[in-house]
Design a protein that fits this description.
CATH architecture: Orthogonal Bundle
Shape: globular
CATH class: Mainly Alpha
Number of strands: 2
Strand content: 5-15%
Length: 80
């Protein structure tokens, strides 16, 4: 069973920014209004990289891949 995405510290990822007042101050992909959790939810639901990119054309395949890799790395870290 996967950990809740809220357990991911997105601010540790270089692709993420948090701007007060933009998308309620939630972590978003830099330069967009896209929530990284939305990308991971799509991936966890079985969407391919290409399908995710079709749904989020503002992101490059390499950005999507990096977000997926980051989430997987954060999920595999032991909880302290």
């Amino acid at each position: 069973m996967a950990l809740a995405h809220t357990d991911i510290n997105w601010m540790a990822c270089e692709l993420i920014e948090q701007i007060p007042g933009k998308v309620s101050g939630r972590p978003i992909v830099r330069g967009t209004r896209i929530l990284p959790d939305a990308i991971i939810n799509s991936h966890d639901a079985g969407e391919t990289l290409e399908e995710i990119q079709e749904n989020y054309p503002g992101l490059t395949p390499s950005q999507i891949q990096r977000l997926i890799e980051f989430a997987h790395a954060m999920r595999s870290q032991p909880v302290s």
